[in-house]
Amino acid sequence: MGGVRGKSQGGPFGAPGRTASSASNSQEIDLYVALADGTYLYDAATCRLASVTEGDLRALALTPGERDVTAAAPVQLIYVVDIHRLTHTVGFEEPGLHDPEVQKSYYYVATGLIAQNVYLFAAAHGLAAWFHNCDRAGLAKRLGLNTGQRVLFAQSVGYPALTGG
Fold it and tell me: Helix, strand, or coil here: 70?
């Protein structure tokens, strides 16, 4: 998200860039958007959502103890890493891209940067956001992810709760 209406910006190595950096511009994080009517994959290059699955998967984007707290959030963002993009980057082919421990540091940082962009957008538009764990195995199965893709975290986005008074 971010940039000009979420569109990609010019980046290094002749590939499109984004408002959140990634190792060698590999863009290894995919953002799935779970809504009441289905789940969609965000395509940053076209600023569009592509349908992935029908039905409401938002509850899987929450851990069981959190389901009561944020079940009313209309949007659940699901962060998924695609390891193949790190190991087959169009950018600089540095050795760390093939080391699983270094990969973790890269994709966790990239996820945090994207989540921060969501927080900033939410704050600027009077929305609430919450970054949290999720049912990783359940989401991976329902989203049809391959062995090189891993669900990392989720982020609830919605309207601030009204307080009494």
Answer: helix
